[in-house]
Amino acid sequence: MHEYSLVRAMVDRVEQEARSRNATAISRLAVRIGAMSGVEPELFASAFTLCREGILAGAELDIRRSEAAWACPRCAAAIPAGGVLRCHACDAPAKMVTGDEILLEQIEMEVP
Amino acid sequence: MCETCGCGDPNKVSVEVHDRILSVNDRTAAHNREHFVEGGVFAVNLMGSPGAGKTAVLEATARVLDGKGRIGAIAGDLETERDADRLRAVGVPATAITTGSACHLDAEMVHRSLHHFPWRELDYLFVENVGNLVCPAIYDLGQAVNVVALSVTEGEDKPLKYPVMFRKADLVLLTKVDLLPHLDYRVDVVLDALSRVMPQPSALRVSARTGEGIAGWLSWLEGRRAGQATAGPAPPHHHS
Fold first, then answer.
1. DSSP single-letter state for residue B240
2. Does residue A21 belong to the interface with chain B, where contact is any CB pair within 8 Å?
3. Backbone phi, psi, residue A51, to 5°
4. Contacts of B11 in chain A (CB under 8 A)
């Protein structure tokens, strides 16, 4: 289960940000997890409950999801997920537009 | 003041970060990559299910190379040095990373193992990842290419079931093809599945047992390695 190590990496980053701003508590975190990122949002959330201590003890976790979307890098036409990943018109390999995100987007913290 | 929820609490600040959660791993991976490129070593992240034949492919590669290219391996497993032992037995310098319970290798583990491994003497460094079709795909190690070993005993639908792994693959090695006469496996079905998860699908049929396809696999590696060499060395960086 790599979700636990991802949460640990996120917690390190958040604690660093909190220290640099002298925050007393983290109230909310927002992350974005793509459908093709290889991360299970439910596992990520349960791993987070295991790491919710110290400055993060009262933190809520907001998981924003994004669906997999592909497009042609030449003509920008959408290429449906599940189909052959190649543009019919340009014969170019599809490029992923969204869906592979594993991002920490926002930290809400209490400062004195 | 809290701008997010409008609660008006003057002591709350909302910080927009938009950071990749794996940014620390990504930086270490970039560091590894710079070393590999500057050292003229072509690094391959070899992934696949447990039992897909990753170690067997490397053994067969060593046999066919027969000293004509210097290869070495870092083998990751939860427990034991068995894979590294097998590779050393066929003359491949190998070191093991035992991850304990971790289901994947990360860039830091690879970086640490490089410190006591003569990787600079190699033409090709294979990082044999922990047998797993999910977790290893997420962690960049600093490799030049991702290769996934997929055995014909695993079923044609694996690419559709584990799309994240196959999307990141530069090449899929269809392994154990000597067993095809005994199976109902359809190669065209797996190739169709790959075209739906890999933007640039690329697969080679190999058998470590008979040696079929290993020469083609070596040509593929040579071609990619030549590409890395002509791309030139990475810019200098500070060693941490």
1. -
2. yes
3. -105, 5
4. 110-112
| A36 CA: distance to closest CA in chain B (Å) | 6
Task: Give the model confidence (pLDDT) of A39-85 as tens digits.
Answer: 999 999 999 999 999 999 999 999 999 999 999 999 999 999 999 99
Structural domain boundaries in chain A: 3-67+99-110
**B197 touching chain A per CB within 8 A:** yes
∠ CA B14-A35-B47 to the nearest 5 degrees? 115
The minimum CA-CA distance between A93 and chain B, rounded to whole Å, is 5
pTM comes to: 0.92
A3-67+99-110 sits in which CATH class? alpha beta
Residue B133's closest CA among B150, B152, B117? B150
Q: Are B148 and B159 in contact (CB under 8 A)?
A: no
Q: Which residues of chain A have a CB within 8 Å of the CB of B148?
A: none
B84-131 tens-digit pLDDT: 999 999 999 999 998 887 889 999 999 999 999 999 999 999 999 999
Among candidates A95, A105, A108 on the partner chain, residue whose Cβ is nearest the Cβ of B18? A105
* Structural domains present in chain B: 23-228 (3.40.50.300)
Shortest distance, CA A105 to any CA of chain B (angstroms)? 4
Count, in order, helices (H) and strands (E) of chain A. 2, 6
d(CA B172, CA B194): 9
Question: B15 vs A21: CB contact, 8 Å cut-off?
Answer: yes
